[in-house]
Design brief:
alpha+beta, 14-stranded mixed sheet, about 30% helix, globular
Length: about 300
């Protein structure tokens, strides 16, 4: 078993959290090798070498971004027949830990964790293809959720913090998430895009938020009302059309109570493919990480990776 610890997660507090829980985690995991990630770019090389050496059990110790990096490293380096024998676990050391929601506390310590390798289940992985500013089509794999609009804008601010937000991330991740969300709400402007979902006619709309989900739990305590279908073979797509600030606040207050479908200005679909095109570049959030594009395509790779309970 290889544990990949990202000390930069959780506002730089991940290593200290891991150290405080070392005894409980060692008891829970048994024998493992611990690898500190010096920087994000080191994940792919470490994972590729481990897969070549026969390792099939991996644990992401960090936030959702660490899980995202590990999944991308595995999907990019492991052959399909190998990938089906790989199992992914995680210890939540980040700010939001959406991967562990609705509730996973399997670490034996006061940390969220998905570490039951004996009860691992097959899980779909989302695929994002996007065209960057140079016209190059790039790929990202994702496991939780993706978005454009105000949620992506909030994540973008969270990932590139100003001085106040840097301080909040160290002191209170919850307040840091709230601060970034409020800034995004106040500065949001709806974005015109053309949206294509499966074989439905294209929609040309102005988007305030678009969620593309495998896990209905998003940043902080926000939650959509679509089901959690880890191996359902489909995506849940939730659209919030152009809203002014009062409408945005109502929508996000609804998400705080797990209510979205059927509310004013919303539409929802269960789909396997989704395409987006904008007049200008827009931010796309995938598992809390940000890319920018003018065109993007979402799809699903069904039941390709085993995930711990």
């Amino acid at each position: 078993m290889l544990v990949l610890l990202n000390p930069a997660a959780g506002g730089g507090r991940a290593a200290a959290r891991w150290d405080r829980a070392t005894h409980a985690l060692a008891t829970r995991l048994g024998s493992f090798t611990l690898q500190h990630l010096a920087h994000a770019d080191s994940m792919s090389a470490i994972v590729a070498a481990a897969v070549r050496d026969g390792e099939r059990q991996f644990v992401a110790a960090g936030g959702d971004g660490t899980v995202h990096l590990l999944i991308n490293a595995l999907l990019d380096t492991a052959a399909p027949d190998t990938l089906h024998r790989v199992t992914l676990g995680a210890v939540g050391l980040g700010s939001s830990n959406d991967f562990h929601k609705p509730s996973h506390n399997g670490t034996g310590a006061a940390l969220p964790g998905r570490l039951d390798f004996d009860r691992a289940v097959a899980h779909d992985v989302g695929v994002l293809l996007y065209m960057d500013s140079h016209g190059v089509v790039r790929r990202r794999w994702w496991i939780n959720n993706a978005s454009i609009g105000v949620t992506a804008e909030g994540n973008e601010r969270f990932n590139a913090p100003d001085a106040a937000l840097r301080w909040l991330k160290r002191v209170s991740p919850r307040m840091a998430i709230l601060y970034a969300a409020v800034r995004a709400l106040l500065q949001h402007r709806p974005r015109p895009v053309t949206l294509r979902i499966d074989a439905l006619p294209p929609l040309t709309i102005r988007v305030s938020n678009l969620g593309v989900l495998k896990n209905p739990n998003v940043a902080g305590s926000l939650r959509y009302d679509s089901p959690h279908e880890p191996a359902g073979g489909a995506l849940h797509v939730h659209l919030l059309e152009a809203q002014r600030l009062p409408g945005l606040l109502r929508a996000f207050l609804g998400l705080a109570r797990g209510r979205f479908t059927g509310r004013r200005g919303t539409r929802s679909w269960r789909a396997t493919r989704l395409a987006l095109e904008g007049d200008t570049e827009f931010s796309i959030e995938v598992d809390g990480e940000i890319v920018t594009a003018r065109r993007a395509w979402f799809s699903i790779r069904p039941a390709c990776l085993r995930i711990c309970a």
